[in-house]
Amino acid sequence: MMTMTSLPLNDDLEMMLLCAVRYAIGRRTYITGVVTSYLAPLCEKLSTRTLLLMKTDIEDAAKTPGGLGMDVDERYWTRFLNDIRFELSERNVDT
């Protein structure tokens, strides 16, 4: 049986999550789905700064053909990017 542990969402953890996004962008492996599925429910808890950095990283990668990975990866990133944009709009942040 797996035990659930809660971690405080602090600057260090947010940096680790940002690193996970940067690692996964363009990887063309299952990690894209793992990272985006894990992070999507956390959008409302992440800082505006972290969301903006993730948004920029994804948008920049999307400018290069294949920059987000394969088609399936692109769908994951697009869905996650939409989640980020929605959360930022809820906070009235211009993007």
3D structure, described in words:
With 95 residues, this protein is mainly α. It contains four helices and no strands. It has helices at residues 11-24, 31-39, 48-62, 71-90. It is globular, with a radius of gyration of 13 Å. The N and C termini lie far apart (43 Å). The mean pLDDT is 94.
Secondary structure: number of strands:
0
Poorly predicted sequence stretches spanning 5 or more consecutive residues: none
**Category by helix and strand content:** mainly alpha
Strand content: under 5%
Oligomer: single chain
How many helical elements? 4
The Rg value, from CA coordinates, equals: 13 Å
Q: In whole angstroms, how far apart are the ends?
A: 43 Å
Pattern of helices and strands: HHHH
Largest sheet: none
Q: What is the helix fraction of residues, given as a range?
A: 55-70%
Mean pLDDT: 94
Shape: globular
